[in-house]
Amino acid sequence: MIKVRALLDGQRVEDVAMADLPAIRARQGTLVWVEAISPSPEELATLGEEFGIHEVALEDLQIDERQRPKVEQYQEQILLVAYGALTGTGEHRTRVFEVDLVAGPNYLLTVHGGAPVDEGPVANRVKARPELASEGAGYLLYVALDELVETFFPALDAIGQRVVDLEEAVLAGDTGIQARIFAVRKELITVRRVIGPMRDAMVVLLRRDLGIISHETQRYLQDVYDHLIRLSASVEDLQDVLAGTLDVNATMASNRVNTVARNLAAYAAIFAVVTMISGIYGMNFQHMPELGWRFGYGWALGLMAVGAGGLYIYFKRKGWL
Fold first, then answer.
1. Beta-bridge partner residues of 71
2. Structure confidence by residue, pLDDT tens digits, 130-173
3. CA dist 170 to 163, 174, 246, Å?
4. What Cα–Cα distance (Å) separates residue 220 from each residue in 28, 31, 38, 119, 285?
5. DSSP label at residue 295
6. How far is CA 74 from CA 35, 104, 122, 199, 253, in A?
7. Reported confidence tier of residue 269, pLDDT bands at 50, 70, 90
8. Residues of the chain with CATH 3.30.460.20
9. Which residue has the higher pLDDT, 147 or 284?
10. How do 94-103 and 70-74 pair as beta strands?
11. If you average pLDDT over residues 119-124, what whole number do you get?
């Protein structure tokens, strides 16, 4: 499905039929935003013909969410593969989604698989700065990128809260926490794999003269780059905290094993004394004085009780029991 929106006179945003797109593009001072949602090969071919998109770029516009974020330049066009983040519930609470952007002199194409850039904030921000919008699609590209990057902040906030919960659970002695730690770790790795290349792509946008981005728009793109730097640092910090949590969990599990081993060793020592005494008086030698003694049975039981009780008190004071 393809949606076409046109920013007219820097103030009005109107939906446009695909058939009217050539006429709208020909109007001076008009910005066109085309959104393709899970486009078919035929729809991509139509867009390629309308905007003169290179065949290599058309291949990159096929959404598979396995592409690495990047920037490519094709004559008067810029292809940018970017990602956003969705925060939900379930086993995998944070998911990244791919959005491919093609920017030209007065148009922007966004191609995605169902997780769009929110059109409301984008339209409002572009209308609020008509002097920048009049310079071409560079500012529209900035706004779309900024909206995508902003989706990572609530996602990382949610992951950060889960990391704090995991820390508290580990310190509280929760023994079934390891699987949850690895699940959060996997989400952080997923976010890191797209944040880093997106940061590198922004460096290309800022340092290379791509033609359609004005110097004023580059100042705004610098802000997006700064946000990506912050996100990268946050991911690294969360990974460090999570690694520490995993180490603490392993240490506490080892301590629990050591405690159980000490308990078993203490009880084994206690029962060893009882076994030794019963073994001595169970040998049935003929000249054992206690065998013919009237109180011999009580004496043996008392000796077992005293030996076992003494060891129990000893181990209790040492903290083994």
1. 80
2. 666 666 778 888 888 988 999 899 999 988 888 888 888 888 77
3. 11, 5, 9
4. 24, 18, 29, 19, 99
5. T
6. 20, 10, 25, 21, 56
7. confident
8. 2-252
9. 147
10. unpaired
11. 71
- Give the span between the Cα atoms of 234 and 37, in whole angstroms: 31
SS3 label, residue 93: coil
| Contact predicate 13/6, CB 8 Å | yes
Q: Is the dihedral of CA 171, 176, 178, 182 positive or negative?
A: negative
Beta-carbon contacts of residue 246 (< 8 Å; ≥ 6 apart): 178, 181, 185
- Is 104:174 a contact under the CB 8 Å cutoff? no
Phi, psi torsion values for 160, nearest 5 degrees:
-60, -40
Using one digit for the tens of pLDDT, what is the confidence trace for 3-56?
877 776 656 667 777 777 777 777 777 778 888 888 888 888 888 888 888 888
Mean pLDDT of 234-263: 84
Tokens 């096929």 label which residue? 62
Helix (DSSP H) and strand (DSSP E) numbers for the chain? 10, 7
* Beta carbons of 144 and 126 less than 8 angstroms apart: no
| Architecture of the 2-252 domain | 2-Layer Sandwich (3.30)
